[in-house]
Design a protein that fits this description.
The protein has one helix and no strands. By secondary structure, the protein is mostly helical. The protein starts with a helix and ends with a helix. Keywords: Membrane, Transmembrane, Transmembrane helix.
Length: 46
């Protein structure tokens, strides 16, 4: 395998990582907010 192929593979992997990680963090944040909202509604007497 030549150096150009290694660099190209690393760049594709890094772009995939940059795109993938924020979406997983956003999903975790939305799940946490949904849990907090559900807990808030359950404890609200109205």
């Amino acid at each position: 395998m030549d150096v150009a192929s290694i660099i190209m593979g690393m760049s594709i992997a890094s772009i995939a990582w940059i795109c993938f990680v924020p979406w997983t963090k956003l999903r975790e944040l939305r799940e946490a907010e949904a849990r907090a909202a559900a807990e808030g509604r359950d404890s609200d007497p109205t």
